[in-house]
TrEMBL record:
Enzyme Commission (EC) number: 1.14.99.-
Lineage, broadest ranks: Bacteria, Bacillati, Actinomycetota, Actinomycetes, Kineosporiales
Pathway linked to the protein: Carotenoid biosynthesis
GO process terms (BP): carotenoid biosynthetic process
Single GO MF annotation: oxidoreductase activity
Entries under Pfam families matching the protein: Amino_oxidase (PF01593)
Keyword entries, A-Z: Carotenoid biosynthesis, Oxidoreductase
InterPro entries (alphabetical): Amino_oxidase, Carotenoid/retinoid_OxRdtase, FAD/NAD-bd_sf
Coiled coil region boundaries: none
Species for this entry: uncultured Quadrisphaera sp
NCBIfam families registered for this protein in UniProt: crtI_fam (TIGR02734)
Similarity annotation: Belongs to the carotenoid/retinoid oxidoreductase family.
Protein name: Phytoene dehydrogenase
Length: 530
């Protein structure tokens, strides 16, 4: 069993001191000729591609009829064409990590997926009527910050880019992109460098070192919400999320985010991976800590030598392995969200692909979300992917992806939030907020609509209705996040395990899961970082 499953961080440290071999990682025991991967989400696909590239026979079992998991697709036909909606993540960063999965098969990403750089990365709109376009190009962004907030803030931006770049380089290889068997394995030059760079101070403190304008602070610290923690509580290491999007840049995929798992699955199938779509796993057959097969809801037994579980870790642990959740350290979940997917006849000239609408409140927003209350002064994300890819909607029409953060189910229950009752009224609140923030006529333009509430996220298999999984509190970060190895031959992957939440992280988690089975190929890892 992984040293971190079923252990508090203190106990995890005690239980692994005598078992870690420097420079090596723990791997599954026994044969690994045939690996079953449950779930064709981005993490499961990442793992499957690497396993196939390493010569394993791989079977992917997926309950839906298409790959993608949270990065799914809803298609709605209307007169004149169809609307195509991405059901999950809308912001794509670190495309090299996507390319890395294809490289494991000897394939080129460009042969399967068309990616395009977004500029601006985001458009930030503030309650005082000002706006800031975020550019990945440092010179262009420094000029934009100078126009927006003055020369001192522009200089602070250049220093911020240099700092988070160094933080990223110290963090990615030793803290993110590796399997961690013990906190002791983190001791070294990179950890000392992370501490010196303020990686374990608060994210807000780090940001405030470089920016004095609160509006600029917001655009480089809102990413803490992805980690499920307020900037005032998040560790400075999570400033690398701001680096990943606002500095390294954001891309879009032709055909939407769902085109990513479709392309990954196509490449995997080309190299012999068998996909069993429309097949739901009911339980894992295991004894003595060793999995021997998965059993489907139809009663079929699919044997395996090793097993990768891509469902949300708490759900996989309790429902598939039949183990009580207390065997995983008690988890605190990230805020959830109310997601409205709208197909609309209404367009807005000059719109950006991604727009963040900041309210006046900031600290209060995070306090409300983590405390179990709905935002009284919302800050929200509106994505309009047809700005970049008109083919996602009928001619002349648009797709909108409107995300309002909300408390998780357990947090909201403390204050009586019942989505079976409040969902209709909250929809009107969403539309009213959009109208007041510059999206005049938004409600009247809607032709097609799909709404996902925290209850719906839970029904889709996300613990506590939280699509961003467990929060990245210190006790749920790095080696203290639930580990990915259970028993002799079961490996978890996805946002619920190490390294954490977000498309880049789950792609990495797929590589880490595969390496628990195949071991680390130093030659390949060097290619991954060339």
């Amino acid at each position: 069993m992984s040293a971190f499953l079923g252990a508090t961080p203190r106990h995890a440290l005690q239980r692994t001191v005598d078992t870690v071999v420097p420079g090596r990682i723990r791997t599954v025991a026994g044969p690994t000729d045939h690996v079953v991967v449950v779930g064709a989400g981005l993490a499961g696909l990442s793992a499957a591609m690497r396993l196939a590239g390493a010569g394993r026979k791989v079977t992917v079992v997926e309950r839906e009829l298409v790959p993608g998991g949270r990065a799914g697709r809803i298609t709605t036909k209307v007169d004149g064409g169809e609307y195509r909606f991405d059901t999950g993540p809308s912001v794509l960063t670190m495309p090299d990590l996507i390319a890395d999965a294809f490289d494991a098969l000897g394939e080129d990403l460009e042969d399967f997926i068309v990616l395009e750089q977004l500029d601006p990365v985001y458009r930030a709109k503030y309650a005082d009527g000002t706006h800031l376009d975020v550019h990945a190009d440092t010179d262009a962004m420094a000029e934009e910050v100078g126009r927006f907030a003055g020369a001192a803030e522009a200089d602070g931006y250049r220093r911020f880019v240099d700092h988070v770049g160094r933080l990223y380089r110290a963090e990615i290889r030793s803290f993110i992109d590796r399997n961690i068997d013990s906190p002791l394995s983190l001791v070294g030059r990179d950890m000392a460098r992370l501490i010196a760079l303020g990686g374990f101070s608060k994210m807000s403190t780090l940001t405030e070192r470089f920016f004095k304008d609160e509006r600029v602070q917001k655009i480089f610290s809102f990413q803490a919400l992805y980690a499920g923690v307020a900037p005032q509580d998040a560790l400075g290491i999570y400033s690398v999320i701001a680096y990943m999007d606002s500095v390294a840049g954001v891309v879009t995929a032709r055909g939407g985010v769902h085109a990513i798992p479709v392309g990954m699955a196509a490449a995997a199938a080309k190299h012999g991976v068998e996909f069993r779509y429309g097949t739901t796993v009911a339980t894992v057959e295991h004894a003595g800590g060793r999995a021997s097969a998965v059993i489907t809801t139809d009663g079929e037994r699919i044997a395996c030598d090793a097993l990768v579980l891509n469902p949300d870790l708490p759900v996989a642990f309790t429902e598939l392995l039949g183990r009580p959740l207390r065997r995983v350290a008690p988890l605190t979940y990230s805020p959830s969200c109310y997601l409205m997917l709208a197909g609309s006849a209404k367009g807005y000239p000059g719109a950006a692909h991604h727009t963040i609408l900041f309210g006046r409140s900031w600290r209060e927003v995070f306090a409300e979300l983590t405390g179990g209350r709905l935002m009284s002064d919302p800050s929200i994300l509106v994505s309009n992917p047809t700005v970049s890819d008109p083919g996602l909607a009928p001619p002349g029409k648009h797709v909108y992806h409107v995300l309002f953060p909300t408390p998780s189910l357990s947090a909201g229950a403390k204050h009586g939030l019942d989505w079976t009752k409040i969902a209709p009224a909250y929809r009107e609140h969403v539309l009213d907020t959009l109208e007041r923030r510059g999206y005049e006529g938004f409600g009247d333009g809607i032709e097609v609509e799909h709404v996902t509430t925290p209850l719906d996220w839970e029904a889709q298999g996300m613990a506590d209705g939280a699509p961003f999984a467990s929060a990245h509190l210190f006790r749920q970060t790095g080696p203290f996040r639930p580990g990915n190895l259970w028993g002799e031959n079961v490996v978890f992957t996805g946002s619920g395990t190490q390294p954490g939440v977000g498309v880049p992280m789950v792609l990495i988690s797929g590589r880490l899961a595969a390496e628990r089975i195949t071991g680390v190929d130093p030659a390949y890892r060097s290619r991954a970082w060339r």
